[in-house]
Amino acid sequence: MQKYGSLLSRLLISAIFIFAGLGKIFDPTSTMGYMKSTGMPAVRFFLVMAIIFELAGGISVLIGYKARLGALGLIVFLIPVTLIFHNNFSDQTQLIMFMKNMAILGALIAIAINGPGGMSLDGRKPALS
């Protein structure tokens, strides 16, 4: 049960990052507009960096290849994103988004500490010689 649970948790947590990264690729204008509305500088640079972090980290966690490193990368990405974009706690929606990101951080920390589990590229057993 544990190996299937780890796989399911990696699938669920990585999906949000992979879909977000793909969304930014297919509609960069909307994302850059939102970033500009917060006063963020160098939006093209940060958009590209967000896509790289979300896709590389999301795929790493999903397939369980260097999953601890992928989870750490997503943690490094998610902390400033949360503080920059979801800091208006008087807005109920922003408070919920902040708390959602805290839950995602918790899952990523668990992966970073415990690894991806047995059903992963990192967890495969070496071939016998």
TrEMBL record:
Keyword Cell membrane attached: yes
Q: Write out the GO cellular component annotations.
A: plasma membrane
Q: Does the keyword Transmembrane helix apply?
A: yes
Q: Where in the cell is it found?
A: Cell membrane
Where do the coiled-coil regions begin and end? none
Which PANTHER family does the record associate with it?
A: INNER MEMBRANE PROTEIN YPHA-RELATED, OXIDOREDUCTASE CATD-RELATED
Membrane topology, record value: Multi-pass membrane protein
Q: What is its main location?
A: membrane
Question: Of which family is this protein a member?
Answer: Belongs to the DoxX family.
Please provide the record's keywords in A-Z order. Answer: Cell membrane, Membrane, Transmembrane, Transmembrane helix
Q: What name appears for this protein in its UniProt entry? A: Putative inner membrane protein YqjF
Q: Where are the transmembrane segments?
A: 7-26, 46-65, 72-89, 95-115
